[in-house]
């Protein structure tokens, strides 16, 4: 696979398209894309982790819940995540461990304030390569 994700511009928001050999990898790459909007991932160390368990009515909802939970952890605990291990993923449940560190303003240059993942133009595709698309409110 050539790339894990790409950033797409939208009128007042920003979006990502993430790819994976399977849906777990696409969800992990979507999370990496989210945090690449917030800061340079090369500057983030993996010194702590948070476990996330979510349920949603469908895979699209699960993707939005997943990304919004990570935004919530960033907003409330001031943690930037870099690596995401999807432990379990089906159409309605996700279990994952996310690795990163607390924001250090001397080390991390914050780029974009991301408010939330949205359902606008949301896509979850399982063709030859799994692909997800999400727009974020910024």
Strand content: 35-45%
* CA(first)-CA(last) distance: 29 Å
Helical element count?
A: 2
Q: Looking at CATH, which topology would you report? A: Archease, Possible Chaperone, Chain: A, domain 1
Approximate helicity band: 25-40%
Number of strands: 8
Order of helices and strands: EEHEHEEEEE
**Approximate shape:** globular
Give the class from helix and strand content and strand pairing. alpha+beta
Parts with pLDDT < 50 across at least 5 consecutive residues: none
CATH classification, class level: Alpha Beta
Topology (SSEs and partners):
Elements: E1 5-9, E2 14-20, H1 23-38, E3 48-55, H2 59-77, E4 79-89, E5 93-102, E6 116-117, E7 123-126, E8 130-137
Antiparallel strand pairs: 1-2, 2-8, 3-5, 4-5, 6-8, 7-8
Helix pairs in contact: 1-2
């Amino acid at each position: 696979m050539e790339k894990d994700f790409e950033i797409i511009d939208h009128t007042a928001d920003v979006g990502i398209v993430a790819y994976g050999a399977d849906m777990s990898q696409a969800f992990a790459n979507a999370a990496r894309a989210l945090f690449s909007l917030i800061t340079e991932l090369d500057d983030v160390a993996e010194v702590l982790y948070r476990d996330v368990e979510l349920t949603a009515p469908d895979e699209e909802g699960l993707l939005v819940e997943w990304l919004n939970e990570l935004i919530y952890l960033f907003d409330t605990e001031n943690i930037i995540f870099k690596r995401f291990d999807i432990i379990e993923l089906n159409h309605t449940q996700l279990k994952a461990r996310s690795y990163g560190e607390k924001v250090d303003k001397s080390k991390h240059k914050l780029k974009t304030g991301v408010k939330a993942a949205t359902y606008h133009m949301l896509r979850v595709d399982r063709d030859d390569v799994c692909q997800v698309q999400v727009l974020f409110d910024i």
